[in-house]
Amino acid sequence: MSHNTFGHMFRVTTFGESHGPAIGCVVDGCPPMIPLEAAEIQLDLDRRRPGQSRFTTQRQEPDAVKILSGVMAHPQTGVQVTTGTPIALLIENTDQRSKDYSEIKDKFRPGHADFTYEAKYGLRDYRGGGRSSARETATRVAAGAIARKVLPGVNVRAALVQMGPHKIARENWNWEEVGNNPFFCPDAEKAAFYADYLDGIRKSGSSIGAVIEVVADGVPAGLGAPIYGKIDSDIAAALMSINAVKGVEIGDGFDAAALTGEENADEMRMGNNGPTFMSNHAGGILGGISTGQSIIARFAVKPTSSILSPRKTVDRAGTDTDILTKGRHDPCVGIRAVPVAEAMVACVIADHFIRHRGQVG
Amino acid sequence: MSHNTFGHMFRVTTFGESHGPAIGCVVDGCPPMIPLEAAEIQLDLDRRRPGQSRFTTQRQEPDAVKILSGVMAHPQTGVQVTTGTPIALLIENTDQRSKDYSEIKDKFRPGHADFTYEAKYGLRDYRGGGRSSARETATRVAAGAIARKVLPGVNVRAALVQMGPHKIARENWNWEEVGNNPFFCPDAEKAAFYADYLDGIRKSGSSIGAVIEVVADGVPAGLGAPIYGKIDSDIAAALMSINAVKGVEIGDGFDAAALTGEENADEMRMGNNGPTFMSNHAGGILGGISTGQSIIARFAVKPTSSILSPRKTVDRAGTDTDILTKGRHDPCVGIRAVPVAEAMVACVIADHFIRHRGQVG
Amino acid sequence: MSHNTFGHMFRVTTFGESHGPAIGCVVDGCPPMIPLEAAEIQLDLDRRRPGQSRFTTQRQEPDAVKILSGVMAHPQTGVQVTTGTPIALLIENTDQRSKDYSEIKDKFRPGHADFTYEAKYGLRDYRGGGRSSARETATRVAAGAIARKVLPGVNVRAALVQMGPHKIARENWNWEEVGNNPFFCPDAEKAAFYADYLDGIRKSGSSIGAVIEVVADGVPAGLGAPIYGKIDSDIAAALMSINAVKGVEIGDGFDAAALTGEENADEMRMGNNGPTFMSNHAGGILGGISTGQSIIARFAVKPTSSILSPRKTVDRAGTDTDILTKGRHDPCVGIRAVPVAEAMVACVIADHFIRHRGQVG
Amino acid sequence: MSHNTFGHMFRVTTFGESHGPAIGCVVDGCPPMIPLEAAEIQLDLDRRRPGQSRFTTQRQEPDAVKILSGVMAHPQTGVQVTTGTPIALLIENTDQRSKDYSEIKDKFRPGHADFTYEAKYGLRDYRGGGRSSARETATRVAAGAIARKVLPGVNVRAALVQMGPHKIARENWNWEEVGNNPFFCPDAEKAAFYADYLDGIRKSGSSIGAVIEVVADGVPAGLGAPIYGKIDSDIAAALMSINAVKGVEIGDGFDAAALTGEENADEMRMGNNGPTFMSNHAGGILGGISTGQSIIARFAVKPTSSILSPRKTVDRAGTDTDILTKGRHDPCVGIRAVPVAEAMVACVIADHFIRHRGQVG
């Protein structure tokens, strides 16, 4: 019953809207004795932060995180460590531009949650979208930074692999490039193309979708559980919970539908460190349990719904009308989903890591 | 913490392996006063049951369901109704062919959960795959039949829309055809093609993947919840938890990545019954909450891992070896996933329906 | 959201009514590789079974338990062990006396759940009480037998320490005596007194309450968690969930209210095996976490509500009437609560044992 | 898996230690459209706040609460209302006296959670007790204030009914008196006695236990659920989770053990508003479900563990030593438990109220 909580043993509860005093989260279930500084969390937040290039919203949020609880200086070493108690993180909202919301206050913006929140709750936070705003994802990134610390030896990275219809060239994949362009793109050549392409989209007042791939290296075999505790099931839920996501794949994903059993089989041979898979169509998961290979997931993000072209809609009074959404928006909201997806996958793996350690003799 | 339980208010816990005495499930949270007979559940089970055509495993299981608890003759009307207490369903295993499992007992079958169960638990049920067997899904179908009864006015249907690389023609979609062929295919012409195609696959000892689409009509607006209670997030988890599923989409899914904001917007106009969407790229869900349109989900199933061609593997002793899997297997396991997917989506909607309006009718 | 499930990592879901085909439970989260035979579970069930003396209901139920899933012969050793997958247990109902229920069908029996079930669900299972019947507790005892196997070195025992106003003499406490009388009483002298006392109660058609004490030895320090994961909080919930229980105490319990801080302090001294407590007012739990001492809990059971003296009540039509409950009932329902309480406490400890092993580095 | 979360539909997650920057909580599942101001929450907090009389710790905390999220001015009425999204509440810590903790840093205080936290986590927050401090309960009171708003017509009140061995006179019970003395005592005469009595305890550096009774009026019939969703089971867990609580009773509680079935039966007669109970031995709950009568619970609080008399203990190095706890402590910690207990019971009832009738107003 966890509308705003995810995870079972490593549990993250988030709160906050873009137009309240603050957003934040509570991470419950983090093991004790893990060194943790706010600066480490800040590093991940800074990667997600808007206003860093012309390709993301110009909203300027310093997104400075404070740790409110759950850590203390170790009595003997003096190093700040987790205590095993809930870690609350707070990010104050500072750039709540006092704009005029009269345009959208009573209209349902197509592609937004305006109509559905109103249907569910009878009201909605029209100032920035309330909980449906991507601003909430900052708190997930903060939680993910803690999840990473729970998982020594595990490296969770993500990259944008498609913008609009334009896919990267797999053979050009270079993780080093991801930090060299504003798109988290691992293909330098394609990143240069995306810059021009997205400039065109942005200047026309339009928006475009994207596909992101997440890769987790170093995950030990045996995480996950049968049936409804499958690690791929949890990853699917976690990625689908990110704003604007419309599809999730593991390993070969939808392409697997076109394969034969022979093609899809990940054969095995003994290697120096035990049984070794010769391919990874499965994306590192079999029967819902990690194989020890890299876990690979991909997800599709729809184009930003807020665009400058007028769209047909209705208002709360039931009158046909048009709407165009002014304001500071991302032309490709998929870009900022990259660090969010890393965080979500890190949280899922940390959760299963803790579950596994407990349940098995 | 629900390895074998799914749902929050409408909770389904399943148990059983193909080589034990029985499989079954407990449905907790079903509202009281709903007429329910075993025969109604049996109807859904019969659609999933193997051994019905040459295109599914020849294992013959009557899959006769018994209701063990949670119903009684209504004291006044005499009609058998739910009482609000847990409904336990039991399906006895009858066709456990006493075959020789020495071939696979100590070898890890590629694409199966053999290696990962062994990594997690230190042992595995090599006789039929234990909990990783598709047999478990019979209990989900049974639970789904109860979920349907919780949802008057909601119709959850699924159809196979792609086998191997061969997609159906959307313009030929006819729900009536789904019951007329062994593939649950809504395109009669394509179904005829599939019969020949799958015969070829089957005779060569190979297998092939598939894509299935689930459509839920009649879902009221307002089901689901923000962030981690999103109905699309729950559907993604539910479908990904089905054996061999590698990808899940909502609405336009991965195709949405290639759309512009203008193309993707589901515009609205006032209709006779209030605000009406003019398209359904979103698949009936915005911000994780149902719009009142049809909910549309698709998922990809990998080819059956058990094939007759020998594949490279290793055994528990760490020796390189080959394996080919004899026995009764589905050449396209996606076919039998069709009623399972309907059941899972029905359960998710029933859960959100009860969360939205309370447990008691 | 677990009306019929308890536990977090070691999860027990129960089902069934006394007048359906069977009762049972699903134990999810039991670690793998634990030797387990139905006969071991049967031993605990036999202790709880009614019809064993004139002091419990004469309903004769063999209560023979079957394991439906979650175990297999270990591939190497042949010993039947748990597999880590859900263990379903089934107990068929055999002695459903086809009595005439017309007397109570439409009347609310004082002290029973008749009125409240009707208020909640709109109907109730008047044949034996449905889920409110003590028959459900047989499934808890079965689950508890598995919990015990998860906890090597832990010994959970319970004893009846008060019947009506008559308390046992603490100085006569002898665990060996518990099996020598039909009251699970550790004081042989008092047990003899209870036999006469309860005969009088029984013959007069009345009933009487009782107090039971549960002691868990061998529990390691460190189980439990702060705030809402406190092991005493979970024990309180578990014991209060048993039929007819109206109060729960840990350690000195209500007597602690009358103590000063000096009296209540459990002082410590170094012993041969580390820090040792010199007393156990706390009942083995401080701050919700086990101290390594014996965990001690007590609970009060109200008198059986079904008595032969007529009581004032109303019927469903809203007419004042009287009711007396014929049939086979326990004059002191607290007696049969003894093995149930042991089972519940064993389940709570097993749950925390698994949680602790996972969460802490 | 909720170490720091309680509730199912109305979920409260708390965080914070007395020596961090702040404490707080997140209330998830509060229905929308409920008017809510920080000032209303502050009223309840002020009742619990320490430093208000010589009988509670002299720590001075303004305990000013801020609402960080989950409310907005209603778009039409302008009244601040809940939005259905998580309500985060923050209370900054201001009076963290920078005292010298060297005395207790390495010693285990008898009766405190020092030893058990160290056993569980390997370290503990010796500055004020970390999560085991009663300071955490301020956040529960804040959450309880919101729960009360969810329950129009329900009145949850508590009173101290016993201090040390001295019980109040039931015939003198007057709810009006509860606010007239620093003990929340409903018996004016006994309150005067307590003042002298507790002065003596306090001046001698000792402490004393207490018993508190909680009464919830106006609870509709039908809340709660069978077996493990029993409302009395949830109340037992909630009250036992409060610091220093060692026992919980519902209705007649432990006294019920000495009653006969005739004495314990709450008989019924038709009243003007339907079936009416003629007594309330059951404390308003039958079969785990509310009867519509007042829900009555009592709990015992042990004496404050921090006392000025030296007690025997050991230190982390394993050396026998003595400890006396200086500092600002409550001579009777039960006093401050009164508003905490009200809050916990209000939260449990709100949770069951929402479970019964759905999340949305």
Describe, in plain words, how this protein is organized in 3D.
Chain A has 361 residues and is an alpha+beta fold. The first copy, chain A, has helices spanning 38-48, 102-105, 114-121, 137-150, 188-203, 231-240, 261-264, 334-359, and strands spanning 5-6, 11-15, 22-28, 65-67, 71-73, 80-82, 87-92, 155-163, 166-167, 210-217, 245-250, 268-271, 274-277, 285-286, 289-290, 295-301, 311-314, 320-323. Helices cover 26% and strands 22% of the residues of chain A. In chain A, helix 1 (38-48) packs across helix 4, helix 1 (38-48) packs across helix 8 (334-359) and helix 4 crosses helix 8 (334-359). Chain A is globular and about 65 Å long. Chain A starts with a strand and ends with a helix. The interface between A and C is medium-sized, with 18 and 18 residues.
